[in-house]
Amino acid sequence: MAIYLNNAATSWPKPEAVPKAMYDFLTRGGANLARGTAAKRDLSTMDMVMCCRENIAKLFDGFHDGDPRYVTFTSNVTESLNVVLKGFLKKGMRVVTSSMEHNASMRPLRRLEQKGVIELSVIECDGEGILHPEDLHSVMKGTPFDLMVFTHASNICGTIQDLPAIASICSEFGVPLVLDSAQTAGLIPISSSEMDLAALCFTGHKGLMGPQGTGGILWRPDFAEKVDWFIEGGTGSFSHLEFQPDMMPDKFEAGTPNLPGIAGLLAATEWLMKESIEKIHTREEQLGSLLLEGLKKLPGIKLAGKMSMEGRLPVFPLNFHGRDHAEVAAHLAEDPGIETRPGLHCAPAAHKTIGTLGDGGAMRISVGYFNTEEEINTCIEGLEKILSMPVEA
Ligand SMILES: Cc1ncc(COP(=O)(O)O)c(C=O)c1O
Fold this sequence. Notes:
The protein contains 13 helices and 12 strands. The protein is an alpha/beta fold. It folds into 2 domains: 3-12 and 276-388, Alpha-Beta Complex (Aspartate Aminotransferase, domain 1), CATH 3.90.1150; 17-275, Aspartate Aminotransferase, domain 2. The strands form 3 sheets. It has a 7-stranded mixed β-sheet with strand order 2-8-7-6-5-3-4, sandwiched between helices. A 3-stranded antiparallel β-sheet has the order 9-10-12. The radius of gyration is 22 Å and the shape is globular.
């Protein structure tokens, strides 16, 4: 059986309740949302979707005591960021972001910049991937911005940004803040209302432990009002209107949602609340420490990013003296059977920032809650064995 150390791509395995809930929905429930009668199955689908909205609003401490109408479901965080950025940004607006961004926000931003819609400022982070709040402060002091968007933690080196400091600077200058929580949702507590996030964009299939094809946006109500929708169609409501209703949550949710996915996401959020984010974070930190200390002892490794577990997630980008990281990853997958992810991880700007772009990226090892000490030790031993072999000419 392979050892899975690619949790930054998607968490695996999922808690057993997740596939079970999806199976139960498809075999016993299965009614569409607000598109039937008030039969038991119809009500049960409505209830399931509402409970999932409520759990998301509770997990991220949404506005107005977690008003569930301000949770929009999408198919992933990429869609969430596109909905927010393309729906909010208008001609002449100025946006600030960091050099550690994933293409999920970088590509829509660059395209809007290329089309002459926005002006984009990218703040350089340091070699550990840290966005220094004082740099943001001085940039904001000089220029009025309409939006700030950034990723809470890097998907290539796990560096966690100082969200409270960044949020406070955005508040000081009245700039709406959009957070890409792809790597932190479910792993680090986030209070949307305390941080005054205009939009918290999440994906369901990583730290939230849900299935692929789920994600969403938790909105600050006044910000949701300023964002245009770009998908129009049936909502199962206001059917007499030939125009998209602007009521939440219907405004951003035309078409049948991924109901089996939402069933799985609901089960995942219930599991997460029972298990607790703090417990999961502590466990991942322990496993991350074990791996980091083991990696530091191996000769021939070039480790990028932070050298301690402080302020980071257990996501490690590796390169090797005299060896191609993709070849090492392939070797490791063969023997002892460890799954990692080589390459650029859809974040070329971030690799440039931490100095790994010239190596074509890195072999990323990312630990998850269900990994064991034994698996981490097997990974370190496996790497040691590969690195002790002669380099092929
Ligand atoms: C920081 C970050 N943002 C965005 C994404 C995109 O996630 P998804 O493919 O679920 O939309 C990822 C996925 O790796 C990520 O790590």
